[in-house]
Amino acid sequence: MSDDAADPLKLIALDADDLAILSAHLQDAVLKVADVVWLPADRRFALAARRFDWEGAARGQHRRRLAALHFDRVMSVRSTGIDKAMTDRVLSLLAIGFTAGEAPTGEITLHFSEGAAIRLAVECIEAQMKDLGPVWEALGKPEHPEDA
Predict the structure, then answer these.
(1) Which is nearest to 30 in space by CA: 135, 118, 126, 112?
(2) Which end of the chain is more exposed for a tag (fewer CB within 10 A), N or C?
(3) H, E, C per residue of 32-95
(4) How far apart are CA 31 and CA 49, in angstroms?
(5) pLDDT, tens digit, for every residue of 74-92?
(6) What are the residues whose beta carbons fall under 8 Å from the beta carbon of 87, sequence distance 6 or more?
(7) Residue 47, CB half-sphere, CA atoms under 13 Å: how many?
(8) Which helix (H) or strand (E) holds 25?
(9) DSSP letter at 145?
């Protein structure tokens, strides 16, 4: 399969299992603080990221893709370890998790390197990720040391 032959991903998450799939595809995505937006009037949280293409890596292709991710039905947003004024700061997404509240509410947490996090209080899980098209060669494959 050639680099250009891979179809762009378009994923929807409506439960914790779906969210885990989104998390796997977005592991090691990088973005700037400026790439994150909270739209309280629309109850939407969105970001643009450069995700590492893990499916391509399984075929020996190390590349990144521009992707958009948004969450709907967001009631509030809190962050830890992120200075919103540092718009050029690069964040590396490690995982997306969900802590259930009184069904179907809960908290979605975007975990970043260096202990940074964004927490979304949600009415329910309603998320969508879509590749936007641009694909480029990555400098290498992200590595994670095994837990001791």
Answers:
(1) 112
(2) C
(3) EHHHEEEEHHHCEEEEEEEEECHHHHCCCCCEEEEEEEEEECEEEEEEECCCCCCCCCEEEEEE
(4) 5
(5) 999 999 999 999 999 999 9
(6) 32, 33, 34
(7) 20
(8) helix 16-26
(9) P
Using DSSP, state whether 5 is helix, strand or coil: helix
Q: Model confidence over 99-139: pLDDT tens digits?
A: 999 999 999 999 999 999 999 999 999 999 999 977 867 77
What are the tokens at 86?
């540092």
Tell me if 118 sits within 8 A of 39, measured CB to CB: no
CA–CA dist 64, 34 (Å, integer):
19
Q: Is the pLDDT of residue 4 over 60?
A: no
Structure tokens at 77: 């947003």
pLDDT in tens, 35-77: 999 999 999 999 999 998 877 767 877 888 999 999 999 999 9
